[in-house]
Amino acid sequence: MEFTQVWSIAAKEFRDRIRNRWVLAVALVFTAFALVIAYFGGAQQGTVGFRSIEFTIASLVSLVIYLVPLIALMLGFDAIVGERERGSLDLLLSMPITRFELLLGKYLGLAGALAASTVAGFGLVAMLLAAELDGSALFHYVGFMASSVLLGMAFLSLAVMVSVFAADRTRASGLAIALWFFFVLVFDLLLLGALVVTGGSYGGEAFPYLLLLNPADVFRVLNMFSLAEVRTLYGLATVFPEALASPALLASVMAGWIVAPLAVATWRFRR
Amino acid sequence: MTGEAMISVRGVTRHYGTIHAVDGVDLDIGRGELFGLIGHNGAGKSTLFKMMLGLVPVTSGDILIDGVPVRGSDFRRVRRGIGYLPENVVLYDNLTGLETLVFFARLKGVPADGCAAVLARVGLAHAANRRVVEYSKGMRQRLGFAQALLGKPRLLFLDEPTTGLDPEAIRSFYAILRELRSEGVTVVITSHILAEIQERVDRLAIMAAGKVRARGTVQQLREDMALPLTLRVVLRPGVADTVRAALQGLPLAGISGSGEELVLTCPRTAKLQVLDAVSALRNEVLDIHVREPSLEDVFFGFAD
Fold first, then answer.
1. Which of B:71-100 have CB within 8 Å of A?
2. Do B185 and B268 lie in a common domain?
3. For FRET with B35, which of A29, A51, A64, B137 sits at 20 to 30 Å CA-CA?
């Protein structure tokens, strides 16, 4: 493994996203949405204005769970297939680099861009709300940002996998959208449906663990269990096994969701 | 060929399902040789190129570059000494010319401070800090060529390198290739502009339907094909019949034309005999043009 080459590819990808203002645009989207949610998140309950950090994070989690996977998938779906389609992949592969190094460099560069816009976007909100945040609230907010970055990394890894498997960009974008629908919309419905159909009589104990099979749910669980008040808010405190409340365990599951698709992509790319 | 082969292709086959893109190819390309690979689209030359670069696995057979098996664990070292210009290369629009070269220099693991000189060598020094999106097709092609020259390669693979270049740029391109060859660099080039390549390569191979149909110098190919020569004879007015009569009995493959010009075709072996006979007719003949068969004639003789 030669890190100079990996780094060169990563640096180019990152610089591309800075130059075409992708990072700036996504950061602004995050900031705008987060501010709207912080101030108007309670409108349904008849209040407008900043309420509490717990409430704000709970609302932001619902936003991030839709937005971040979509943005990550759109960022990474053409990482490899795009190079293949334009004809530059052969040139890259004729260089003295391995396919894994190319894939890793691409991933790290894109991950850097996504992390930068996530941290900048939500970080700006934290600064704007600084007056409202005490030490513990800030800690929770940083945890929320970190888990958002992890969520993005996991879906970016899935996107890069798609970009290796797909025959062309059109199919890659279709596959990416399908993954988004599956993990963000369909997966929970399936679990819920299964729970309803079986009346909770079969495997009910195992159900919370099935959430680990979806990085979006891992993200949700991570943010709910870091906040006792949020747990109560969702009425989930009694449903969840204590084992799942460990942020370290959840973060390592998320790390698994980052590594596994990349590993599959590498295996496929080498063939 | 000089010394041990730089590229050695042995019984190489590449199948895509039932399609035999490359079918039992044997080829040796010597060190310091300027070698041309010619064929129609779909003849298999790009696939052969990619197999020689290790980009596409062979279905069967062996390819050695500088004695090292392609796609083996040692090949990464060999790759540092290879420059490649893919056909219709698309570089990155948002980088400048210089940034493009620096990017590829880092991937190759060669010092980036030589990039400006390479850019100057292909005549792009003035555009070093302009983004590639502003480059013309010819400039992009030259930038692609510059990329292939990074790190002083010992072996160059150039796939249709002169596409999009104007005649002046083509001349300076081949001037660079001649310099490289004099430095001992092996160059493998494909082109569909046969007239352009035939004067400039040392040897060539003609591919059709996945097979190498012929190989050698242009001269060897012409002789192997035994293509007839064509003589165009310019006459004084009104002597065509006299001349036709005088040429009776010569081993001509054909005679056509009338009035003030006759076109004779004859086997290569009868060239001097026919020239003697024609030049003996001083009172009737004003001029003689001899046309050697072109590589196009050779090419279409083999590739059909």
1. 76-77, 79-80, 82, 84, 86-92, 94-95
2. no
3. B137
